[in-house]
Fold these 2 entries.
Entry 1:
Amino acid sequence: MLLQFEKVSLWYDDNRTVLSDIDMALPEGGFYFLTGPSGAGKSSLLRLIYGAERPSAGRLSLFGQDVVNAGRKELMNLRREIGIVYQDFRLIPHLTALENAALPLRLAGADNEYVLRHARELLEWVGLGNRLEALPTELSGGEQQRVAIARAVVNKPKLLLADEPTGNVDDETAVKLFHLFDEMHKMGTAVILATHQQHLTEKFKKPGLRLKGGRLTSPMTKVA
């Protein structure tokens, strides 16, 4: 099993409940759209999956391992299997686009020639072949987002989590990026992609997980 939530809830000290009684079991290798209105809890759900948040209640397992009680080392090992596209990009400011995209492979100790070739190919795929040496401050928001996507998929993760990955690009680029995610899926990467772009979810027709008011409803029938 890829991912299992059992009565998972998340609330904060100010008594603000973000997620309530989430139950779901996702098999390995799937591609899922996570949808819902702004504030429904999509980003919080993704943070629970990669261990940036701990559930306030319930059980959560990833790749068959308990995430709730995992220690720091166990979480680090789990995260090595996950590619993440953050809404705020989180690029390293003193590294070029090529260096940012290559970073996961560098950290994994991959061969230098392979690292540069593969990172360059991905940046060319997302339309940044002429921006390889640009620093993040020299890139537009949409360009930064595409570098972040290349970085997330460069090491062919077991699971890809993407939080509004096409929110800062035009529709043509968004479709191209969705094709990239689909290709990753076909090569064996499971994908959970949070989005509010209904026309894209309708075009790609993947199973949907819909959040509303912190509660999960499935299957998805409509994007708010």
Entry 2:
Amino acid sequence: MHEFESFVFLDVQKTGSTFVSHLLTEFCTEEVMKYKKHARVEDRYDPKKFYFITVRNPLDQYISLYSHGCAGMGGLARRLRKRGHGDLYDSTWEGFRVWLKFVLQPDVSHMLDDEYGDDANDHIRELIGFQTYRYLELAMRTPLETLAECETQDDVRAGYEKTNVVDFTVHHETFADDLEELITTKLRHAIRDIDGAIKHIREAPKLNTSDRIDAFQTDTRLGRKLQTTLNEREWLLHELFEY
């Protein structure tokens, strides 16, 4: 979470969030009230402030997360290696498919995140996949409390609608266009040198990136069964953002 005087950026992992925070640091005129990477809003929620978030197609997000781990980086890769699953990171497409099948299983969620995988939250990990959880824990005021009361997908939809704080979404697929729209409209009052900020958005190199394992892959199909599993686990992101 990157909080300023009049707005808050909700920085979902592997969605271009490092670039956005750097852009705000460079061009925002407001004082930083709090900065803690990927932190939740919770009791800091202020309805007078403007909240925006970054999102990404869950398959692309998983590929980026896996590639990051193959490069020896990232908390998830460290967790899995510590638990004896370092062999999953072999930097191949087939290796990614094996890894993805593994992390999509609800019963390994404790290896991905302590709270997501907590036994007390077993119904949460059955209802939503890891990337959906990462989105919801930042997009909702009280994510764990709200999700704890959910027993069905309709409950998740209702809980999200009730506690969602997001006013604007930056999609990774239209990243530069969405950011330019954001700083020239909703955040215009807080951005110095609009032209310079737009130039930065369009020309500055991406940050915190890894070499993609699918960069030279001609066939990036998952296979019907694995694709179906991914769609079923990350159903809410597909539903909300038409992925």
